[in-house]
Structure prediction request, 538 residues.
Amino acid sequence: MTEKETNPKNDMVDDLEDLKNYTDELADFLPVAFCVVNPLNCILEVNNFFEVLSGYEKVEAVGKRVENLFLEREEINSLIEEVKKEKGKVEKELTLITKKEETVPVDVSALARESEDGFVGFFLTIMDVTEKREIEVKMERELAKKTKELEEKAKQMEDSRSALLNILEDVDKSYKEAEKERSKTAAIIENFIDGMMFFGADHVLSIVNPKAEDFFDIKARDVTGRDLRELSTFPTLKSLINFIKGDGKIADLFREELKINEDFYLEITTTGIEEDGEHLGTLIHIHDITREKRIEKIKSEFVSVAAHQLRTPLSGIKWTLETFLEEVSEEKGKLNEDEETLIRKAYDANERMVNLVNDLLNVSRIEEGRYIYEPEVVDILDFLNPILETYKEAIENKDNLSFKVNKVKDSFPKVKIDAEKIGIVVQNFLDNAIKYTDEGEVVLSINMIDDNIRISVQDEGVGIPEEQQERLFNKFFRAENVIRKDVEGSGLGLFIAKNIVEAHNGEIGFESTEGEGSIFYFTLPIHKGKEKGFIEEF
Ligand code: ADP
Prediction:
């Protein structure tokens, strides 16, 4: 055993040496910058990491005043003050200034060193917190972003909430308004002076107002909710339902007359109700026309009675005047020329009266459904020729008028007609053409259109003002241009003609231009042995 080996002092030195090496190694190994500072704030010792972080080599660092290493002078001074005073551990976030004068965010901890003599300096650890700060900044930014997003979301939700509330408010308002409108409409329907019914698109009755209840002696509660088929089993509703029932739907009716019984007439109008192109149902408007019908009947009875009463005296006058005229022609010189002219004028005027009375009688018969037809199968040319002969003479006797007959064929299929009545129609057309034409040609044409014979009378006369044309077939209607011209007429001829033609299942119509002329026409279906409709009843 050597002295060295056995000397405890040497052992201690060795141990201290080992300890120093150990602490140096430890200090160099630590990933934290570290320095030892004396009470005058001068650096005594630094580790490797300090060199790396600050860029100062150990020799440069040793002896440097520690406060010169940091940006925040006041802060580092207060840290040092504190550590000296408190003699414990003090920490701060500071900024390190490297040798290259770059700044590095650091966490600084100071720990007082003490010996038996008291304070002998302090340790300073400096930790690079760049990454930590970056993460913090990033996190703060992220947090701010998220907070902003959340705030926006919250705002959006708030907006949606108030929008929703507004919508709810609007809905509530609209609902109240709709309710108000609904009760207004209901009140109108309830108190309407005419009857009203509403059928849904499925033909189920949903509304019946009190007036309709009265008309049909029904109660709304008994009939609503029922469809057309079920309703037709109600005896009092049957005639209405049959009247409005169309082909798989409710028929389109405009002021159509429905006779319930002799003393009760209704006028029915149906209106399809649509919204945005969707069929919602049909409104039935029911108007009581019993009073009008009664007045019409009284009027027509009066006309009929008056016309009948007039016929006898007119026939008497006709007979007297005819006798006069016959005598005149037999025994010349009995009357002088003036007297003869006067009697002829009286005769013509009487003839016009007779015609008017006949027209009035025909109108009242038509209206009362008493216009009797006596049909026979005839050849249209055989029937027309005698009429045309008479008119040829009459027209050619008038200055400035000529007459032409246009037949597309020499023979036509037979027709089943009441020749006398169809004669009235042809005569009415020809009379009008002559009356309302000052000069020009009157052309009567006969031709075939499909299974119909078409007879037309064309003239070059005064024509009919366009705005009055739709009223032409109305009873007593006369256009203002002929009234102005003071041409005589009653406005009954076309009304009668229309009824006659339609009773024969034909069509009547015209085309006209005021000042240029008119063409009036009617058709007759050819006789096939078994005609349909009215003609069958002949
Ligand atoms: P009336 O001739 O006796 O007045 P109608 O019923 O025959 O009665 O005719 C009704 C009206 O139609 C006439 O008043 C006239 O205004 C018009 N009208 C009929 N035929 C013609 C025609 N050929 N040219 C011009 N107007 C006509």
